[in-house]
Design brief:
Number of helices: 5
Number of strands: 6
Helix content: 25-40%
Number of domains: 2
Strand order of the largest sheet: 2-3-5-4
Distance between the termini: 17 Å
Shape: elongated
Radius of gyration: 18 Å
Largest sheet: 4 strands, mixed
Length: 127
């Protein structure tokens, strides 16, 4: 299960999100000459908070399709699951035998907004 409350729900008062704090700290460190901080890793790469979270969630759930019963019996056993629970359940996936991945539609901020900020995937009882 994943949830994204900071970006899905409205901010209260003058609070800053973790994304805003990350960007402010990165810029401050870069301005002071820190050689490890590059704009291409932070403020140039992520033009918006939505871009940041979309990339962070692109590999969700990232768990293998194993156990009894299988979470998704229509998909290959042992392959890593990537994508929304809706797309995996419906079989709207691309199966990559080389990487052993079953990839559905990526979890994105817009998808989470439509699903009340929560994504859930089924689990197996016996692993």
């Amino acid at each position: 299960m994943i949830w994204l409350c900071y970006f899905i729900s409205d901010k209260q008062f003058e609070s800053k999100t973790p994304y805003e704090i990350m960007q402010l700290l990165a810029k401050a460190l870069a301005d002071r000459g820190d050689p490890d901080i590059k704009g291409s890793d932070f403020w140039e790469k992520y033009r918006s908070e939505e871009d940041f979270w979309n990339e962070a969630m692109a590999v969700a759930p990232g768990r293998p399709n194993v156990g009894t019963p299988l979470q998704y019996p229509k998909l290959p056993k042992g392959y890593k699951l990537i994508g929304t629970s809706d797309s995996l359940e419906a079989g709207r996936v691309t199966i990559d035998d080389e990487k052993t991945e079953s990839t559905g539609e990526p979890v994105a901020v817009q998808w989470l907004r439509e699903h009340y900020g929560v994504a859930e995937w089924p689990m197996s009882w016996h692993r």
